[in-house]
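Whiteboard transcription, Tuesday session. T.W. wrote the C-alpha coordinates on the left side:
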Protein backbone atom coordinates (compact mmCIF):
# COMPACT_ATOMS: atom_id res chain seq x y z
CA UNK A 1 0.00 0.00 0.00
CA UNK A 2 1.24 3.50 -0.82
CA UNK A 3 2.75 5.31 2.16
CA UNK A 4 1.62 8.76 0.95
CA UNK A 5 -1.48 8.30 -1.22
CA UNK A 6 -3.50 6.76 1.60
CA UNK A 7 -6.98 8.14 1.14
CA UNK A 8 -9.77 6.26 -0.60
CA UNK A 9 -10.64 9.51 -2.36
CA UNK A 10 -7.25 10.00 -4.04
CA UNK A 11 -6.43 8.27 -7.32
CA UNK A 12 -2.66 8.19 -7.61
CA UNK A 13 -1.62 8.35 -11.29
CA UNK A 14 -0.33 5.10 -12.75
CA UNK A 15 3.45 4.85 -12.63
CA UNK A 16 4.04 7.37 -9.84
CA UNK A 17 7.06 6.53 -7.67
CA UNK A 18 7.51 7.72 -4.10
CA UNK A 19 10.95 9.05 -3.13
CA UNK A 20 12.52 10.11 0.15
CA UNK A 21 10.26 12.95 1.38
CA UNK A 22 13.30 14.75 2.82
CA UNK A 23 14.57 15.33 -0.72
CA UNK A 24 13.43 18.17 -2.96
CA UNK A 25 12.71 18.37 -6.67
CA UNK A 26 15.93 19.08 -8.63
CA UNK A 27 16.89 22.74 -8.61
CA UNK A 28 15.62 23.48 -5.09
CA UNK A 29 17.17 23.64 -1.62
CA UNK A 30 15.55 24.03 1.79
CA UNK A 31 16.25 24.04 5.52
CA UNK A 32 14.65 24.60 8.89
CA UNK A 33 16.24 25.82 12.13
CA UNK A 34 15.04 26.84 15.61
CA UNK A 35 15.11 30.56 16.29
CA UNK A 36 13.20 30.76 19.57
CA UNK A 37 9.60 31.47 18.53
CA UNK A 38 8.26 28.08 19.66
CA UNK A 39 8.26 27.08 23.30
CA UNK A 40 10.67 24.26 23.92
CA UNK A 41 13.11 25.23 21.20
CA UNK A 42 11.40 23.51 18.28
CA UNK A 43 12.28 24.15 14.64
CA UNK A 44 10.35 27.28 13.68
CA UNK A 45 12.13 29.09 10.83
CA UNK A 46 12.23 27.64 7.33
CA UNK A 47 13.39 28.56 3.85
CA UNK A 48 12.91 26.93 0.46
CA UNK A 49 14.71 28.41 -2.53
CA UNK A 50 15.61 28.24 -6.21
CA UNK A 51 18.88 30.16 -6.19
CA UNK A 52 20.00 29.95 -9.82
CA UNK A 53 18.45 29.27 -13.21
CA UNK A 54 14.96 29.85 -14.54
CA UNK A 55 11.89 29.75 -12.31
CA UNK A 56 8.15 29.79 -12.95
CA UNK A 57 5.78 30.16 -10.02
CA UNK A 58 2.30 30.88 -8.73
CA UNK A 59 1.12 32.27 -5.41
CA UNK A 60 -2.35 31.97 -3.85
CA UNK A 61 -3.28 33.89 -0.70
CA UNK A 62 -6.16 34.03 1.77
CA UNK A 63 -9.16 36.25 1.05
CA UNK A 64 -9.64 36.98 4.76
CA UNK A 65 -10.19 40.74 5.21
CA UNK A 66 -8.08 40.59 8.39
CA UNK A 67 -5.13 39.22 6.41
CA UNK A 68 -1.81 38.99 8.24
CA UNK A 69 1.23 41.16 7.49
CA UNK A 70 3.00 38.53 5.34
CA UNK A 71 -0.11 38.18 3.17
CA UNK A 72 -0.25 41.95 2.65
CA UNK A 73 3.45 42.08 1.79
CA UNK A 74 3.11 39.24 -0.73
CA UNK A 75 -0.04 40.72 -2.20
CA UNK A 76 1.38 44.22 -2.58
CA UNK A 77 4.98 43.68 -3.63
CA UNK A 78 5.78 40.09 -4.53
CA UNK A 79 6.27 38.98 -8.15
CA UNK A 80 3.96 35.97 -8.02
CA UNK A 81 5.21 34.59 -11.33
CA UNK A 82 8.85 34.72 -10.21
CA UNK A 83 8.98 33.47 -6.62
CA UNK A 84 12.52 32.19 -6.08
CA UNK A 85 12.31 31.65 -2.34
CA UNK A 86 9.87 31.53 0.56
CA UNK A 87 10.88 32.45 4.11
CA UNK A 88 8.52 30.99 6.73
CA UNK A 89 8.16 31.08 10.49
CA UNK A 90 5.80 29.20 12.79
CA UNK A 91 4.79 30.10 16.32
CA UNK A 92 3.67 33.62 15.42
CA UNK A 93 1.17 34.57 12.69
CA UNK A 94 2.25 38.25 12.60
CA UNK A 95 -1.44 39.05 12.16
CA UNK A 96 -3.25 42.06 13.65
CA UNK A 97 0.14 43.59 14.44
CA UNK A 98 -0.25 46.90 12.60
CA UNK A 99 2.53 48.82 10.88
CA UNK A 100 5.13 47.06 12.98
CA UNK A 101 3.95 43.74 11.56
CA UNK A 102 4.38 44.98 8.00
CA UNK A 103 7.85 46.28 8.81
CA UNK A 104 8.81 42.96 10.39
CA UNK A 105 7.58 40.96 7.40
CA UNK A 106 9.49 43.25 5.04
CA UNK A 107 12.63 42.87 7.16
CA UNK A 108 12.29 39.08 7.11
CA UNK A 109 11.96 39.15 3.35
CA UNK A 110 14.78 41.62 2.83
CA UNK A 111 17.28 39.77 5.01
CA UNK A 112 16.46 36.43 3.41
CA UNK A 113 16.83 37.97 -0.05
CA UNK A 114 20.17 39.55 0.83
CA UNK A 115 21.47 36.29 2.25
CA UNK A 116 20.49 34.46 -0.95
CA UNK A 117 21.58 37.21 -3.33
CA UNK A 118 18.03 37.66 -4.65
CA UNK A 119 15.75 40.61 -5.32
CA UNK A 120 13.33 41.07 -2.38
CA UNK A 121 10.32 41.03 -4.71
CA UNK A 122 11.16 37.44 -5.66
CA UNK A 123 10.98 36.24 -2.04
CA UNK A 124 7.60 35.40 -0.50
CA UNK A 125 6.91 35.54 3.24
CA UNK A 126 4.63 33.16 5.14
CA UNK A 127 3.94 33.02 8.87
CA UNK A 128 1.67 30.94 11.11
CA UNK A 129 0.87 30.79 14.81
CA UNK A 130 -0.71 33.03 17.42
CA UNK A 131 -2.61 36.10 16.18
CA UNK A 132 -2.22 39.55 17.73
CA UNK A 133 1.25 39.13 19.26
CA UNK A 134 4.17 41.15 17.84
CA UNK A 135 6.80 39.04 16.11
CA UNK A 136 10.17 38.63 17.84
CA UNK A 137 11.93 39.89 14.74
CA UNK A 138 15.36 39.96 16.36
CA UNK A 139 15.19 36.19 16.95
CA UNK A 140 14.04 35.65 13.38
CA UNK A 141 16.81 37.89 12.05
CA UNK A 142 19.42 36.01 14.05
CA UNK A 143 18.19 32.72 12.61
CA UNK A 144 18.20 33.75 8.95
CA UNK A 145 21.98 33.58 8.47
CA UNK A 146 22.10 30.11 10.05
CA UNK A 147 19.16 29.10 7.89
CA UNK A 148 20.83 30.17 4.65
CA UNK A 149 23.96 28.26 5.61
CA UNK A 150 21.96 25.08 6.26
CA UNK A 151 20.22 24.95 2.86
CA UNK A 152 20.38 21.51 1.27
CA UNK A 153 18.78 19.44 -1.48
CA UNK A 154 17.81 17.08 1.35
CA UNK A 155 16.35 19.81 3.56
CA UNK A 156 12.63 19.22 3.01
CA UNK A 157 12.29 17.40 6.33
CA UNK A 158 13.62 20.20 8.52
CA UNK A 159 11.71 22.75 6.42
CA UNK A 160 8.51 20.75 6.95
CA UNK A 161 9.12 20.71 10.71
CA UNK A 162 9.64 24.47 10.68
CA UNK A 163 6.15 25.22 9.35
CA UNK A 164 4.18 23.10 11.84
CA UNK A 165 2.23 24.48 14.83
CA UNK A 166 -0.51 22.27 16.33
CA UNK A 167 0.07 19.62 13.64
CA UNK A 168 0.36 16.11 15.04
CA UNK A 169 2.49 14.96 12.10
CA UNK A 170 4.37 16.52 9.16
CA UNK A 171 2.66 16.56 5.77
CA UNK A 172 5.13 16.13 2.94
CA UNK A 173 6.04 13.98 -0.02
CA UNK A 174 8.43 13.67 -2.94
CA UNK A 175 7.24 11.75 -5.98
CA UNK A 176 8.46 11.08 -9.50
CA UNK A 177 6.53 10.24 -12.65
CA UNK A 178 7.52 10.15 -16.32
CA UNK A 179 10.87 11.78 -15.60
CA UNK A 180 9.37 14.63 -13.53
CA UNK A 181 9.89 15.09 -9.78
CA UNK A 182 7.50 16.94 -7.49
CA UNK A 183 8.04 17.66 -3.79
CA UNK A 184 5.53 19.29 -1.45
CA UNK A 185 5.18 20.31 2.18
CA UNK A 186 2.04 21.49 3.99
CA UNK A 187 0.81 22.34 7.45
CA UNK A 188 -2.62 22.80 8.94
CA UNK A 189 -4.83 21.44 11.67
CA UNK A 190 -7.17 24.20 12.86
CA UNK A 191 -8.71 27.43 11.56
CA UNK A 192 -9.44 25.59 8.32
CA UNK A 193 -12.10 26.46 5.80
CA UNK A 194 -9.98 28.22 3.24
CA UNK A 195 -12.33 28.66 0.30
CA UNK A 196 -9.08 29.39 -1.49
CA UNK A 197 -6.01 27.71 -0.10
CA UNK A 198 -4.99 26.02 3.13
CA UNK A 199 -2.91 27.13 6.06
CA UNK A 200 0.44 26.73 4.31
CA UNK A 201 1.50 24.61 1.33
CA UNK A 202 4.67 24.72 -0.76
CA UNK A 203 5.19 22.72 -3.95
CA UNK A 204 8.39 22.40 -5.98
CA UNK A 205 8.87 20.62 -9.30
CA UNK A 206 11.49 20.28 -12.01
CA UNK A 207 8.74 20.27 -14.64
CA UNK A 208 8.38 23.04 -17.19
CA UNK A 209 5.37 25.10 -16.13
CA UNK A 210 3.79 26.92 -19.05
CA UNK A 211 0.91 28.20 -16.90
CA UNK A 212 1.81 27.83 -13.21
CA UNK A 213 -1.11 29.94 -11.98
CA UNK A 214 -3.57 27.88 -14.00
CA UNK A 215 -2.05 24.60 -12.82
CA UNK A 216 -2.18 25.66 -9.18
CA UNK A 217 -5.69 27.12 -9.26
CA UNK A 218 -7.04 23.98 -10.91
CA UNK A 219 -5.39 21.71 -8.34
CA UNK A 220 -6.49 23.85 -5.40
CA UNK A 221 -10.10 24.03 -6.66
CA UNK A 222 -10.45 20.28 -6.23
CA UNK A 223 -8.56 20.00 -2.95
CA UNK A 224 -7.87 22.84 -0.54
CA UNK A 225 -11.05 24.65 -1.58
CA UNK A 226 -13.05 21.54 -0.67
CA UNK A 227 -12.01 21.10 2.97
CA UNK A 228 -13.12 22.30 6.39
CA UNK A 229 -12.10 21.55 9.95
CA UNK A 230 -13.94 24.24 11.88
CA UNK A 231 -15.41 26.59 9.28
CA UNK A 232 -12.83 29.29 10.05
CA UNK A 233 -10.89 31.08 7.30
CA UNK A 234 -7.30 31.74 8.33
CA UNK A 235 -5.62 35.13 8.21
CA UNK A 236 -2.45 33.51 6.83
CA UNK A 237 -3.40 30.95 4.13
CA UNK A 238 -0.61 30.67 1.55
CA UNK A 239 0.05 28.23 -1.30
CA UNK A 240 3.14 28.48 -3.52
CA UNK A 241 4.06 26.47 -6.62
CA UNK A 242 7.61 26.74 -8.02
CA UNK A 243 9.03 25.09 -11.13
CA UNK A 244 12.70 24.87 -12.14
CA UNK A 245 12.08 23.38 -15.58
CA UNK A 246 15.19 21.21 -15.23
CA UNK A 247 13.36 18.04 -16.31
CA UNK A 248 12.59 19.60 -19.68
CA UNK A 249 9.11 18.06 -19.54
CA UNK A 250 5.63 19.25 -18.60
CA UNK A 251 3.82 18.17 -15.44
CA UNK A 252 2.35 14.68 -15.90
CA UNK A 253 -1.41 14.79 -16.03
CA UNK A 254 -3.04 14.32 -12.64
CA UNK A 255 0.17 14.38 -10.57
CA UNK A 256 -0.21 17.81 -8.97
CA UNK A 257 -3.94 17.25 -8.41
CA UNK A 258 -3.34 13.95 -6.60
CA UNK A 259 -0.56 15.34 -4.41
CA UNK A 260 -2.42 18.42 -3.23
CA UNK A 261 -5.65 16.47 -2.64
CA UNK A 262 -3.80 14.01 -0.41
CA UNK A 263 -2.15 16.91 1.43
CA UNK A 264 -5.52 18.61 1.88
CA UNK A 265 -6.98 15.40 3.29
CA UNK A 266 -3.99 15.11 5.62
CA UNK A 267 -4.86 18.58 6.93
CA UNK A 268 -8.45 17.48 7.59
CA UNK A 269 -7.35 14.20 9.18
CA UNK A 270 -5.04 16.21 11.44
CA UNK A 271 -7.82 18.61 12.42
CA UNK A 272 -7.31 19.56 16.03
CA UNK A 273 -8.53 16.54 17.99
CA UNK A 274 -9.91 14.87 14.87
CA UNK A 275 -10.25 11.08 14.69
CA UNK A 276 -12.22 10.67 11.44
CA UNK A 277 -12.66 12.33 8.03
CA UNK A 278 -16.02 12.64 6.30
CA UNK A 279 -17.11 13.51 2.79
CA UNK A 280 -20.45 15.29 2.49
CA UNK A 281 -21.81 14.73 -1.02
CA UNK A 282 -24.82 16.64 -2.34
CA UNK A 283 -26.51 15.62 -5.57
CA UNK A 284 -29.54 16.85 -7.45
CA UNK A 285 -29.19 20.51 -6.49
CA UNK A 286 -30.27 23.43 -8.67
CA UNK A 287 -26.70 24.10 -9.68
CA UNK A 288 -23.17 23.75 -8.35
CA UNK A 289 -23.41 26.82 -6.13
CA UNK A 290 -26.46 25.45 -4.32
CA UNK A 291 -24.87 22.02 -3.97
CA UNK A 292 -21.73 23.62 -2.52
CA UNK A 293 -23.73 25.73 -0.06
CA UNK A 294 -25.63 22.69 1.23
CA UNK A 295 -22.53 20.50 1.42
CA UNK A 296 -20.68 23.15 3.44
CA UNK A 297 -23.62 23.55 5.83
CA UNK A 298 -23.59 19.80 6.46
CA UNK A 299 -19.80 19.58 6.79
CA UNK A 300 -19.64 22.52 9.22
CA UNK A 301 -22.58 21.42 11.37
CA UNK A 302 -21.35 20.65 14.91
CA UNK A 303 -24.16 18.11 15.16
CA UNK A 304 -23.05 16.25 12.02
CA UNK A 305 -19.40 16.48 13.06
CA UNK A 306 -20.13 14.98 16.49
CA UNK A 307 -22.22 12.27 14.85
CA UNK A 308 -19.19 11.38 12.73
CA UNK A 309 -17.08 11.25 15.89
CA UNK A 310 -19.59 9.09 17.76
CA UNK A 311 -20.32 6.82 14.77
CA UNK A 312 -23.97 7.81 14.94
CA UNK A 313 -25.80 7.54 11.56
CA UNK A 314 -28.21 10.31 12.56
CA UNK A 315 -29.68 11.37 9.22
CA UNK A 316 -31.97 13.87 10.93
CA UNK A 317 -28.99 16.11 11.66
CA UNK A 318 -28.07 16.08 7.98
CA UNK A 319 -31.63 17.01 7.00
CA UNK A 320 -31.59 19.90 9.47
CA UNK A 321 -28.31 21.29 8.16
CA UNK A 322 -29.44 21.03 4.54
CA UNK A 323 -32.73 22.74 5.36
CA UNK A 324 -30.88 25.55 7.11
CA UNK A 325 -28.75 26.12 4.00
CA UNK A 326 -31.92 26.30 1.89
CA UNK A 327 -33.99 28.33 4.35
CA UNK A 328 -36.99 29.91 2.63
CA UNK A 329 -36.92 27.48 -0.30
CA UNK A 330 -39.83 25.21 -1.23
CA UNK A 331 -38.19 21.91 -0.35
CA UNK A 332 -39.93 18.53 -0.02
CA UNK A 333 -39.40 16.80 3.30
CA UNK A 334 -36.02 15.10 3.54
CA UNK A 335 -35.91 11.62 4.98
CA UNK A 336 -33.93 8.38 4.88
CA UNK A 337 -34.83 7.85 1.22
CA UNK A 338 -32.87 11.00 0.32
CA UNK A 339 -30.05 10.64 2.86
CA UNK A 340 -27.47 7.85 2.99
CA UNK A 341 -25.51 8.10 6.24
CA UNK A 342 -24.80 4.47 7.13
CA UNK A 343 -21.02 4.91 6.77
CA UNK A 344 -21.05 7.29 9.73
CA UNK A 345 -21.60 4.23 11.91
CA UNK A 346 -18.66 2.32 10.45
CA UNK A 347 -15.25 1.59 11.91
CA UNK A 348 -13.27 3.16 9.06
CA UNK A 349 -11.44 6.46 9.54
CA UNK A 350 -13.02 7.79 6.33
CA UNK A 351 -16.79 7.90 5.83
CA UNK A 352 -19.16 9.28 3.18
CA UNK A 353 -22.66 10.63 3.52
CA UNK A 354 -24.85 11.53 0.54
CA UNK A 355 -27.88 13.79 0.22
CA UNK A 356 -30.07 13.70 -2.91
CA UNK A 357 -32.20 16.82 -3.40
CA UNK A 358 -33.88 15.94 -6.71
CA UNK A 359 -33.98 19.63 -7.76
CA UNK A 360 -31.53 19.60 -10.70
CA UNK A 361 -28.15 18.24 -11.70
CA UNK A 362 -25.84 20.25 -9.41
CA UNK A 363 -23.28 18.27 -7.40
CA UNK A 364 -20.61 19.12 -4.83
CA UNK A 365 -18.60 17.49 -2.08
CA UNK A 366 -16.81 18.85 0.99
CA UNK A 367 -14.27 16.96 3.10
CA UNK A 368 -14.56 17.58 6.84
CA UNK A 369 -13.30 16.33 10.18
CA UNK A 370 -15.21 15.16 13.20
CA UNK A 371 -15.51 17.26 16.36
CA UNK A 372 -14.14 15.86 19.60
CA UNK A 373 -13.47 16.97 23.18
CA UNK A 374 -9.83 17.51 22.25
CA UNK A 375 -10.72 20.32 19.83
CA UNK A 376 -12.35 22.28 22.64
CA UNK A 377 -9.52 21.56 25.09
CA UNK A 378 -6.78 22.60 22.65
CA UNK A 379 -8.43 25.82 21.55
CA UNK A 380 -9.59 26.79 25.02
CA UNK A 381 -5.96 26.80 26.10
CA UNK A 382 -4.29 27.94 22.86
CA UNK A 383 -2.68 31.11 24.24
CA UNK A 384 -2.55 30.12 27.92
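and on the right, the sequence the group agreed on:
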Amino acid sequence: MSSFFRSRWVDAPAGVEELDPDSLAPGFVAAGVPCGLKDGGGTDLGLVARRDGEVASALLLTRNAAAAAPIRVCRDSCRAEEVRAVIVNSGNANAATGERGIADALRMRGEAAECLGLEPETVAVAETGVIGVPLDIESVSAGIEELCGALSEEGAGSFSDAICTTDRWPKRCTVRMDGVTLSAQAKGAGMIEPGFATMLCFVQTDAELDNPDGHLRCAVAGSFERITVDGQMSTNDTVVLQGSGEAGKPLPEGLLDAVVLQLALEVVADGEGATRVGLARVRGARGKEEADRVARAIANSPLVKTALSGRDPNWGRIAQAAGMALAGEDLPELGPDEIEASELAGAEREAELTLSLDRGDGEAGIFFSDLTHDYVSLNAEYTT
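Someone added at the bottom: The mean pLDDT is 93.
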